[in-house]
Design a protein that fits this description.
This protein is of the alpha+beta class. The protein has one domain. 44% of the residues lie in helices and 17% in strands. It has a 3-stranded antiparallel β-sheet with strand order 1-2-3, with no helix packed on it.
């Protein structure tokens, strides 16, 4: 099992890489995709779970950073958030939270 300090460092590194991917997205999409690849490797190595926002910000198929409305399409269908990558066409579905469903 990895030590707690390594897990904490991994979480900090993941946050930093996601911030860099977001900042560099307009200028260099390939660099943003590379940051996402690094995030996935770090998360798998240290067995760190990504939160829902982080999971929704990259394509699992082509590892591209997804900016909603730019290179991805977001729809709500049958109480699910449907996220589609416009680069490879991969579709991911996330369940809506209960607070969203109540009116």
């Amino acid at each position: 099992m990895k030590s707690l300090s390594n897990t904490k460092k991994a979480l900090e590194r993941i946050e930093y890489l996601f911030d860099q991917a977001k900042q560099n997205f307009k200028d260099n999409k390939e660099l943003s995709s590379r940051y996402v690849q690094m995030v996935r490797k770090i998360a798998m190595k240290y067995k760190v779970r990504l939160n829902k926002d982080q999971k929704m910000s990259f394509c699992k198929n082509c590892n591209s950073y997804l900016m909603k409305g730019t290179n991805s399409t977001v729809r709500i269908h049958n109480k699910m958030i449907v996220l589609r990558c416009n680069k490879c066409g991969f579709v991911r579905k996330f369940g809506l939270s209960k607070s969203f469903n109540t009116k």
